[in-house]
Automatic annotation (TrEMBL), chain A:
The chain crosses the membrane at residues 58-82, 113-139, 151-182, 202-223, 280-299, 322-343. Keywords: Cell membrane, Membrane, Phosphate transport, Transmembrane, Transmembrane helix, Transport. It is a multi-pass membrane protein. This is Phosphate transport system permease protein. Its main location: membrane. Gene3D superfamilies: MetI-like. It comes from Lentzea alba. GO terms for biological process: phosphate ion transport. Belongs to the binding-protein-dependent transport system permease family. CysTW subfamily. InterPro entries: MetI-like, MetI-like_sf, Phosphate_PstC, Phosphate_Transport_Permease. PANTHER family: PHOSPHATE TRANSPORT SYSTEM PERMEASE PROTEIN PST (PTHR30425), PHOSPHATE TRANSPORT SYSTEM PERMEASE PROTEIN PSTC (PTHR30425:SF1). GO terms for cellular component: plasma membrane. Pfam families: BPD_transp_1 (PF00528).
TrEMBL record, chain B:
InterPro entries: MetI-like, MetI-like_sf, Phosphate_PstA, Phosphate_transprt_permease. The lineage of its organism: Bacteria, Bacillati, Actinomycetota, Actinomycetes, Pseudonocardiales. This is Phosphate transport system permease protein PstA. One of its GO terms (cellular component) is plasma membrane. It comes from Lentzea alba. Belongs to the binding-protein-dependent transport system permease family. CysTW subfamily. Part of the binding-protein-dependent transport system for phosphate; probably responsible for the translocation of the substrate across the membrane.
Length: 354, 304
């Protein structure tokens, strides 16, 4: 905009002109009228057409709107949560209790919710990460060229299935199938806290274990898609260099693709973690609610932040008890915000992925 | 000597390259097997879920009533009825959401590609779009709940659901539109500027039409995604077993809400309604995905 040469032209290439420095340079020499640097800012005003000004304003306004929106989400949740937090009769961060039926005596703490949310997400991530890595390598390096696209489409189809369908499938179909396996784990490895007998009936399948597997399936496509994009950008020179040295296919992958794509893969997994933390309805359907608190077993039930809010949502009637859930939602928002921001900053630090 | 001449594949000198050692070959084979295995493992749940939905839901949707009637006046254990009310709700909430999200999403993308450049605002917008992509649907629903219901004192309605869906749809549209606008060649823009056409008209008449097929595909895919969202309808709309055409007031059904609601119904009729609604939702989403493919084929810029 401050470039007088550009400003003279009716088209006003504007900011995007910076990206095409090559094209802009020759026009400077061809410009029939030499730029007049002494022309004051106001003299240029007639050259800006009203349509341009309005359109620019609209576009910029939309950009500002997005930034404001995120701020508003945080602000409104905080404003709604604060009064209820003030009325909370137990410690919000360290209590395992959650009782909001009496708005005059609110007792809610998020320790149990946090633990269940994090454990479900970690189980999902632990299952999904190696499989997604395998799929991403398969699609970029191993699959036959003409089949790679259809195969990638099949993986993306997983993302098209609504999460409620995954939830119903997890509870009614996968749960019963997993039951004998869960039973076996509890009987033989029950001494290990993770596989101890949990606080819900394993036969119903509403355990952290089932939920973790279903969420793993749901975050596979996002991890795969992002890792695939990064792996595809491995410089051909590196790959060909490795081949020229006599590396086998696996050695090519291990010495070129993996080191190049490692940061991207970690970032993809963080994005998957963000999704897993916020996954709502599938987890709400699968997890059985438990009366006893979470005991670090995969066969415990309980609630995550999202499932707790979703199940209670139809009964939001008192702003004070609704505020308790909004406080939980705020914690979830902050959690996913941090995880996503870390994921993005990992990729932002690697210029070669551009 | 004579045998040597008869065998043309035999090398004149011993080979320079050693054969690959056994351990390296085993490792290579193992890696190949694992990578193929990972892909096959991922296929299992997809096929399994789709099979479950088809097997349990298909008989239900064969009935013509399913597509034309609501659940109005039916008892929980009574079979029959249809999902018309829920299909209407899902489509109309999705469409209203699209009507709001599409202009916002496209304008944000235009800002990022055509105006923003490397300014600080453009950078923070990109970052915020990324963050918005990761906002859980339940948080979006809670946000609309606090603004719409607590602050403005308005009731639960289909419109509130659409507003929550906007938060989930906008980042998807921004991302796809941005990608599409970026690949529009600069020569087209410059040719337009050279004819004295203002920048905004160049964007509207040249840049957008060139990228249109990709943008529409992105919109269809985003629409398919938000239609399956359950958390917002759960928080912001009440279920109605009858047809409600009013966006602004009263309970309105949608397919996910119908499934959640019928989960409390232990009868055979409830079972049929759950899986009938599930397959209907999957069919709708598939239709929108197909539509996306058709649009991208039909409107793709002619390259000749």
């Amino acid at each position: 905009m401050n470039d007088p040469v550009v400003a003279k032209r009716p088209a006003r290439s504007g900011a995007s002109g910076a990206e095409r420095g090559v094209a802009a340079a020759p026009t400077a020499s061809e410009a029939p009228i030499p730029p007049t640097p002494e022309a004051p800012e106001t003299a240029k005003a007639p050259h800006v057409r009203p349509g341009d000004r309005i359109f620019r304003g609209l576009a910029t306004g939309s950009g500002v709107f997005i930034v404001v929106l995120i701020g508003a989400i945080g602000l409104f949740l905080i404003l709604q949560a604060i009064p209820s937090l003030g009325l909370d009769n137990v410690n919000f961060l360290t209590s395992r209790e959650w009782n909001t039926t009496d708005p005059a005596n609110l007792r809610f703490g998020i320790l149990d919710l946090t633990l269940v949310t994090v454990v479900v997400a970690l189980v999902a991530l632990l299952i999904a990460m190696p499989i997604a890595l395998g799929i991403a390598l398969f699609l970029t390096q191993y699959a036959p060229r003409n089949l790679a696209r259809p195969f990638a489409y099949v993986i993306d189809l997983l993302a098209a299935v609504p999460s409620i369908v995954f939830g119903l499938w997890g509870l009614f179909v996968l749960g019963p199938v997993l039951y004998p396996f869960s039973e076996w784990l509890i009987e033989n490895l029950g001494w290990f806290p993770l596989f101890a007998k949990g606080n819900v009936n394993v036969q119903l399948g509403g355990t952290v274990f089932t939920a973790g597997i279903v969420v793993a399936v749901m975050i596979l496509p996002i991890i795969t898609a992002v890792s695939r994009e990064v792996f595809e950008r491995t410089p051909t020179m590196h790959v060909e260099g490795a081949i020229a040295l006599g590396a086998t296919k696996w050695e090519v992958v291990r010495t070129t693709v993996l080191p190049f794509g490692k940061a991207g893969y970690v970032s993809a997994s963080m994005l998957g973690l963000g999704r897993a933390l916020g996954e709502t309805i599938a987890v709400a359907i699968i997890l059985s609610t438990a009366t006893a608190s979470f005991g670090w077993s995969l066969f415990d039930g309980g609630s995550t932040f999202a499932s707790k809010i979703a199940l209670a949502a139809p009964e939001f009637n008192d702003p004070r008890s609704a505020g308790a859930y909004i406080a939980a939602g705020l914690v979830l928002f902050v959690l996913t915000f941090v995880v996503n921001a870390i994921a993005r900053s990992i990729v932002a630090g690697h210029k070669e992925y551009e | 000597m004579s045998t040597n001449l008869a065998d043309p594949t035999r090398l004149a000198t011993p080979p320079t390259f050693q054969s690959v050692s056994l351990s390296r070959r085993i490792k290579n084979g193992l890696a190949t097997g694992l990578v193929w295995g990972a892909f096959l493992i991922a296929i299992i749940p997809l096929v399994w879920v789709l099979y479950t939905v088809l097997q349990r839901g298909f008989p239900v949707i064969l009935d013509g009533d399913w597509w034309q009637k609501s659940m109005s006046g039916l008892l929980a254990r009574q079979q029959g009825g249809g999902a018309y009310h829920a299909i209407y709700g899902t489509l109309v909430q999705g469409l209203v959401c699209a009507v709001i999200s599409v202009p916002i999403g496209i304008m944000v993308a235009i800002y990022l590609v055509e105006y923003g450049g490397r300014s600080r605002l453009a950078k923070s917008t990109t970052f915020m779009v990324d963050i918005l992509t990761g906002v859980p649907s339940i948080v979006a629903a809670l946000f609309v709940y606090t603004v719409w219901i607590t602050y403005f004192g308005l009731g639960r309605s289909a419109l509130a659901v659409s507003l929550a869906l906007v938060l989930l749809m906008v980042p998807v549209i921004v991302r796809t539109t941005e990608e599409m606008l970026k690949i529009v060649p600069d020569e087209l823009r410059e040719a337009s500027y050279a004819l004295g056409i203002p920048k905004w008209k160049t964007i509207v008449k040249i840049v957008i039409p060139t990228a249109l097929s990709g943008i529409l595909t992105g919109i269809m895919l985003a629409l398919a995604r938000v239609m399956g969202e359950t958390a917002p309808v759960l928080v912001l709309a009440a279920y109605a077993p009858f047809i409600n055409y009013n966006l602004f007031d009263g309970p309105m059904a949608s397919l996910p809400l119908m499934m959640v609601n019928e989960r409390n119904n232990p009868t055979q009729a409830g079972f049929e309604r759950i899986w009938g609604a599930a397959i209907t939702l999957v069919v709708l989403i598939t239709l929108f995905n197909l539509l996306a493919t058709v649009i991208s084929r039909a409107l793709a810029p002619k390259t000749k």
